[in-house]
Amino acid sequence: MPENLTTEEPPYGQRRLTLQADCEHCFGLCCAALPFAASVDFAADKAAGQPCGHLREDFRCGIHDGLRAQGYRGCTVYDCFGAGQRVSQVTFGGVNWREAPGSAKPMFDVFPVMWQLHELLWYLDEALSLPQVSHLHERLRKTYDETERLTYADVDGLIGCDPAAHRAKVNELLLEVSECVRAEALRKAGSAPERRRSFGRGADLIGAKLRGADLRGALLRGAYLIAADLRGADLRGADMIGADLRDADVRGADLSQSLFLTQAQVNAAKGDAATKLPPLLKRPFHWEGASGRNQA
User: Fold this and answer.
1) What confidence tens digit (pLDDT) does each residue in 151-195 have?
2) φ, ψ of residue 221 in degrees (nearest 5)
3) Closest C-alpha to 225, from 212, 213, 237, 209
4) What predicted TM-score, i.e. pTM, was given to this entire model?
5) What is the separation, in whole angstroms, between the first and last Cα of the chain?
């Protein structure tokens, strides 16, 4: 079993280290289980359960080094939170869908469920790393453990799981975390809590001119920040859960303490060596002057 799938778990608040994609131990599930449509992100259509034509027999990508150049930008953005190797090596015990063709459909059905559960584990573990919500840690630990137990279910249990319903329950707790973190960020920014910067859930900020904006403590949940100009913006303490950052310009922006930011969101944005990221997120190789390291 791969090292990051051992039963020895890191302490709460550091478990996101085990929730990172490890393609070496995955059976190309994102390349086979998920659908995509011809668009600016994908050069062709592919149905769910249909292996991508570029997926090799060893489950590696045949055009990995040229994905963007060949029209598969979406592949360079995606992140599974470690669900791929979990399904491959734990749920299905290391037996791949080519060796056991009958396992293909259930494996492909289980993968999106595991992906959603792992995403929730990522958010919960991040919350458990925040000292300003220590009064919520007991509830967060219980919710983390409950979510993790769902990931240990057998194939039928996972297929029968309703991740959307579980997400709704988890989200209530994550909103409490958000309120506390954003209130503190606003105090540090000199703004009273009642003047919270809130654009509302799903705010339309497509192409918004927010260069240099002080967005500390902003509520940007589900905001459409597609192609927004966020150069030099201060997003510390901003709740970024579900925000769409496709082609958002975050060059020089401070995302170092943004709340609930994920690797996929970072991958979708346009940054540079001056963009500040949270410690566990990697600087995408396609960013300007990217070295792979983060500036805290």
Assistant:
1) 999 999 999 999 999 999 999 999 999 999 999 999 888 865 544
2) -60, 125
3) 209
4) 0.93
5) 33
